[in-house]
Amino acid sequence: MYRLLNAELYKLRKSKSFLTCTIVTVIFVIAMYGMFVLADNIQNGRMENGTGGVIVSIQQETVEHTSSSIWDTIHVMDILQEIFSGDVIAVIIGTFISIFVVSEFAAGMLKNVVGKGCKRSLIYLAKLLVSMLAAVLIVAAGILTTLVCGRIFIGTGAFDRSFWENLPIYTGLQLLMLLPLTSIFVLIGELCRNLAAGISIGIGVAAFPALFLNFIDMKFSGSRITPSQLWPVTRMSACPFEGFSAEYITGTLLVAAFWLVLTAGLGIWHFSKTDIK
After folding, report:
1. Over the stretch 239-261, which tens digit does the pLDDT of each residue have?
2. For a designed S-S bond to 47, which of 6, 11, 41, 181 qualifies (C-beta 3.0 to 4.6 A apart)?
3. Low-confidence ranges of the chain (pLDDT < 70)
4. Distances from the Cα of 44 to the Cαs of 32, 147, 188, in angstroms?
5. How distant, in Å, are the alpha carbons of 174, 218, 228 from that of 213?
């Protein structure tokens, strides 16, 4: 197992897709701050409203000029929520995992590893663990960029005591849900074994189930059951950034454990039973 992990870590260090997806995540965060900078300039009359497709309005009335700054109403946690609330991070992770997993089937590398007598369950687990590490590093790059840009644009006032108390819990819950999401993408890659199919299905899994589950939520509007919160992507988007209840933390742990055990078990079983060409 140790040698398998070392081999996977070496592949990760040499992976151009890992570097690319990390850079894309950083650019995505910077672009978000760029939109707020543009909106702030518009709000203060330094740019014409509508510049870059950004229209600033207050109470449905177009803003011409105001002395207030948009940074007075935006917090770093708001930016973090924007990062995790959409499908962008899930799509980036899904794309990288598909490339990282499927490329070895296409190149015949896994056949060589299996031919050396390594247990298939350990091969799959090594790939899964390193994929999880890669996903955490990509998201960590986005979080770090958010903090650095927050210091630059919002200032030290954004990093008060409550922020530092909530940040570890919030990021911990998000990374916890990231692990089963990564396991889902690894399973998809192992099942597809085709790069185009893996990326396409991965993007679909990242984006469409949340829409479908949000529709189902309406059917359970009168009960305490919220089906969408049983899916990693929607749970990530709905994660609170303060006032964390024991019930929510416990529910997150259970949802993460369920999907992780299910997908990892299915992946190991399928990888152990099918031929590798």
Report:
1. 887 778 888 889 889 989 999 99
2. 41
3. 40, 42-69, 86, 105-117, 209-211, 214, 217-224, 276-277
4. 19, 24, 48
5. 19, 9, 5
Q: How many CB atoms lie within 10 A of CB 106?
A: 12
- Please list the residues that pair with 62 across neighbouring strands: 57
Distance between CA atoms of residues 128 and 109, nearest Å: 16
Bridge partners of 57? 62
Instruction: Specify the DSSP element, H or E, that contains 62.
Output: strand 61-62
Query: What is the rounded CA–CA span in Å between residue 163 and residue 166?
Result: 5
At 137, which amino acid appears?
Answer: L
How would you label 146-158 residue by residue, b for 16+ Cβ within 10 Å and e otherwise? Answer: bbebbeebbeeeb
Place of tokens 């702030």: 40
Nearest CA to 132 among 248, 28, 5? Answer: 5
Helix, strand, coil % (nearest 5) of the chain? 80, 0, 20
pTM of the model: 0.84
Six-digit token pair at 254? 């259970």
List, as one string, the DSSP characters of 83-135.
HHHSSHHHHHHHHHHHHHHHHHHHHTHHHHHHHTT--HHHHHHHHHHHHHHHH
Q: Are 253 and 176 in contact (CB under 8 A)?
A: yes
- Tokens (6 digits) for 66: 């105001």
Greatest C-alpha distance within the chain:
71
Residue 79 tokens, joined: 């930016």
